[in-house]
Amino acid sequence: MTDVDHYIRAATRDNTRLSYRAAIEHFESQWGGFLPATADSVARYLVDYANILSVNTLRQRLAGLAAWHLDQGFPDPTKAPHVKKVLKGIAELHPVVQKQAKPIQLDQLTLLVNSFDRFIENGSPKEALQSIRDKALLLMCKCFL
Asked: What is the distance between the alpha carbons of residues 127 and 75, in angstroms, rounded to a whole number?
């Protein structure tokens, strides 16, 4: 492996490579697509999985397909205007509802802020400094409640 190859490989995380490989396998094995793909086949792939996979999963699969095409020197079919429109239509017809976390209650926040005192008094100098910092951040949040 040359130095250039070494740095190129380091530019993409192992999990990303695994995810992209899974996207390619899904496109070829599960759906029966052929690579290099056409924009029409990518659009049909999206339509076939619109009711099954989330929009974010479909976007991730498109990223894997795009990476494969670019790495192999082929034009990227996922950037075709009608592929983008199909994905936009799927997102419009199958919206994702964002999960909203419940806000922390004032009594819970007070307990949390007070829990840092033991690290400030009995912890190592590093733990004490981190606890002072964290306590200050939480106290600023408390001011806005």
From this structure: 53
Long-range pairs for 50-54: beta carbons < 8 A, 24 or more residues apart:
50/90, 50/93, 50/94, 51/94, 54/94, 54/96
138 and 82 share one domain: no
Secondary structure of 39-79 in HEC code, one letter for each residue: HHHHHHHHHHHCCCCCHHHHHHHHHHHHHHHHHHCCCCHHH
Domain span at 30: 11-93
Mean pLDDT by 10 residues, the chain (145 residues): 83 90 96 96 97 94 96 96 97 86 84 87 89 87 64
Task: State whether 21 and 45 are in the same domain.
Answer: yes
- Which residues, including other chains, have CB under 8 Å from residue 123's CB and lie 6 or more apart? 131
**What crossing angle do the helices spanning 55-72 and 39-49 adopt, rounded to 10°?**
160
Q: Are 82 and 41 in contact (CB under 8 A)?
A: no
